[in-house]
Write a structure and sequence with these properties.
Length: 420
């Protein structure tokens, strides 16, 4: 168990933020438990919102939420009595067992939320499926909705017991609290922790698609417009590769939009983005078009990338300004207490225990020259060390004939994948 503490000396407000995250070994059981966990957390939120309605009015807020490794609790607001409030909520996680009064209503709401994902725009559905394919503990909303429909109160009780039977606990208290107050609450949390078995942090696996030919998956969509997402997985998650991936995306984002959206008018949704999965870097390109089939859009993206490396030197004049812009974003100052708390908590979650990642990344970007970026993009286009995933919805057009390793069953793909 690791509990971090920091006393705010900058914003000087009578406020604070507390975070507690549970990494539960049971999440590795798969989609049944993940779905039951989602419903249990929603039931817990519903019940505790009623119980602590007055605390909310008094300026103390809380939120339970599920994540890939288990679930988390966050409290924020006025610092007076908040630490006690947080430990009370902790005991409520275990104490609350009867959800019968709100079960049907909360379950229906969760089922509706999962089912509504099917109505999303094609691009949103493609990115949702990409996230499921790439992350070991992520599951498709369409499959979770079927399980959600059949869950019973007994299933929730079983899932809760499994989740709490073995977990790793980590937390952060940051704000207007003394070290003495923090140590007292840490002792209470430790007592709670000692009542349960411990385990290591849950590994957030990312599917390794670097050593196969491009993979493809066709997503069923009720919308008639074809859409495509092409995702390139970087060779590794080193600081240098993260920096190169960010810089590469920033460099080609504007010309990609200008050429394919403005000049070629391929569709009304055209763009790119830096997309890390569990800190492993990657770049995504997307197009949704009312005029062209998916295969045409795939070829257009590949052709743009090929032409970019052939004419890469035309971007040399913007290189220094581009680097400065990215470094400025990385070194942005916190503007309020919550923003700083969230940044520190994210750093802890990302194993940045010295809180120096941004400074290291800034220096790495400073050290990269244009020839290194050029070599990176050439390797991406020729797939040297990169993985490629193509997700598409064909609308009213035919499937693609592009030569890929075709995925027909997501669960089979996930069970047979190697994970980074």
């Amino acid at each position: 168990m690791d509990i971090w503490y920091g006393q705010d000396d900058k914003f000087k407000q009578p406020k604070g933020d507390c975070f507690l995250t549970f990494d539960c070994q049971a999440v590795n059981e798969g989609i049944q438990l993940t779905t039951a966990k989602r419903l249990w957390v929603a039931l817990l939120n519903e019940k505790l919102n009623q119980k602590y309605y007055q605390a909310n009015l008094a300026g103390m807020h809380f939120h339970f939420y599920p994540h890939q490794g288990g679930f988390s609790l966050q409290t924020n607001g006025f610092s007076a009595n908040q630490l006690e409030f947080c430990t009370n909520l902790l005991t409520q996680i275990v104490a609350n067992k009867d959800f019968s009064s709100s079960f049907s209503q909360v379950k229906a709401k969760q089922y509706q939320g999962l089912s509504n994902a099917l109505l999303n725009k094609p691009i949103n559905r493609l990115f949702s499926k990409l996230s499921v394919l790439m992350q070991q503990q992520n599951h498709a909303p369409s499959e979770m909705s079927h399980i959600m429909q059949n869950l019973t109160p007994d299933d929730i009780g079983v899932a809760k017991e499994k989740l709490l039977s073995q977990f790793y606990l980590e937390g952060l208290m940051y704000g207007d609290w003394s070290a003495e107050e923090a140590y007292k609450v840490s002792a209470d949390i430790k007592k709670f922790r000692m009542m349960h078995n411990t385990c290591d942090k849950v590994h957030r696996g990312v599917a390794d698609i670097r050593h196969s030919k491009a993979i493809s998956y066709q997503v069923e969509c009720q919308h008639k417009d074809p859409a495509v997402v092409i995702y390139f997985q970087a060779p590794d998650a080193s600081l240098k590769n993260v920096a190169l991936t960010i810089l590469a995306e920033q460099l080609i984002a504007t010309p990609f939009f200008n050429q394919l959206r403005t000049e070629q008018q391929l569709g009304y949704l055209v763009g790119s983005g830096y997309i890390p999965y569990n800190q492993h870097p990657g770049i995504g390109f997307y197009i949704q078009s009312p005029h062209h089939p998916a295969e045409y859009l795939i070829e257009a993206i590949h052709l743009f990338l090929q032409q970019t490396i052939e004419n890469i030197n035309q971007f040399k004049h913007v290189w220094d300004a581009l680097k400065k812009g990215v470094m400025k974003q990385l070194m942005e100052k916190d503007t309020n207490l919550s923003m700083k708390s969230q940044r520190l908590w994210m750093a802890i979650g990302n194993q940045d225990k010295t809180f120096t990642y941004s400074a290291q990344m800034t220096q790495t970007i400073l050290d990269i020259d244009f020839s290194q970026l050029k070599a990176y993009l050439i390797a991406l286009v020729s797939r040297q060390g990169f993985g490629e995933a193509i997700l598409y919805s064909s609308g009213q057009h035919a499937s693609i004939s592009y030569k890929t390793e075709v995925i027909t069953d997501i669960q089979r793909f996930k069970s047979s994948s190697q994970y980074l």
